[in-house]
Write a structure and sequence with these properties.
The N terminus is likely disordered. By secondary structure, this protein is mostly helical. The longest helix is centred in the first third of the chain and has 49 residues. It has 11 helices and no strands. The protein starts with 27 loop residues before the first helix and ends with a helix. It folds into 2 domains: 60 residues, Arc Repressor Mutant, subunit A; 168 residues, Tetracycline Repressor, domain 2 (Orthogonal Bundle), CATH 1.10.357.
């Protein structure tokens, strides 16, 4: 749904419908209607021509309005990104809890009402960050997904790409995580509010699995993307509290964990492992449904 905003940041009211011309009192309208069905009536009568021209004019007006919507949408998206970028900078400089929507609006050079028009709260700002972050992660992972076919190489590349994308926000990640860790928080990666970003993240791991040359058990193939995403959440948690220079310990964790995951995935093809695998997948499905 596209909203067109005024300078004050509120949606413009739609223009009223054109007035319908009243019928003449002398009955000439009825005579014209009769003439429409008359065999000897000229094909292009003045009334019909005027109607066609009116329809064309209306179509032209609609086209002009649609053309005018594009610059407005572009400006709106620029304002939205400006507010988001400003908020992330202030989160880094002042901390998440100490940064208010009023301060964000002031730094961005927009009215407080405009800031609330694009983002209902700081939590919605973080949801915007989630969405943008997932898009950036997908772009960063594109080279490895496009050129690697081995499962381990694809997974390793995607995990490192995720750390690269998140690196600029490490300084305030711990403070922010305290809010996101609350089970009832809309910032939780498991909340319904975070569903779009979560699905986008799982889609990246679905590409890891789907584009690889790995021979997987069919049931594991279906569940593996979400399991990899859960593993990624564990890596992110480790990264949040990693105080080593440039979070080198997180990089080592990825390098050590990927071969283990690759080996476990390969073992899933063995017949002797399948009963245990079925039990694990059934347990996961039971937990998922018990809400």
């Amino acid at each position: 749904m596209t909203c067109v905003t005024t300078a004050a940041g509120f949606p413009d009211e739609a223009a009223g419908s054109p007035d319908v011309a009243a019928s003449p009192a002398d009955g000439s309208a009825g005579s014209r209607i009769e003439a429409v069905g008359s065999p000897d009536r000229p094909v292009d009568s003045p009334d019909e021509t005027a109607g066609v021209r009116g329809q064309a004019a209306n179509s032209s007006d609609v086209a002009s309005e649609k053309a005018g919507d594009k610059p407005r949408r572009a400006r709106g998206e620029q304002t939205r990104q400006l507010i988001l970028e400003t908020a992330l900078r202030l989160f880094r400089e002042r901390g998440y809890a100490e940064t208010t929507m009023r301060a964000i609006a002031k730094e961005a050079g927009v009215a407080v009402g405009n800031a609330y028009y694009y983002f209902d709260s700081k939590e919605h700002l973080i949801q915007g960050f989630y969405d943008r972050n997932q898009a950036a992660h997908r772009i960063a992972a594109e080279p490895v997904l496009a050129h690697e076919r081995e499962f381990a190489a694809r997974l390793r590349g995607v995990l490192h790409a995720g750390i690269d994308v998140n690196a600029p926000y490490h300084s305030f990640a711990a403070t922010f995580f305290k809010t996101a860790a609350e089970p009832s928080s809309p910032l939780s990666p498991f909340s319904s509010e975070s569903s779009p970003a979560r699905e986008a993240a799982i889609a990246i791991f679905r590409e890891v699995v789907g584009g690889s040359s790995a021979k997987l058990d069919p049931e594991l193939r279906k569940e593996l993307p979400e399991l990899l995403w859960l593993g990624w959440m564990g890596v992110v948690l480790f990264w949040v509290y990693d105080k080593s220079p440039d979070q080198r310990r997180t990089r080592r964790l990825i390098e050590g964990a990927v071969p283990l995951v690759d080996r476990l995935v390969a073992l899933s093809r063995l017949r002797v492992v399948r009963p245990a695998l079925r039990q694990i997948l059934a347990l996961i499905d039971t937990i998922r449904r018990d809400v």
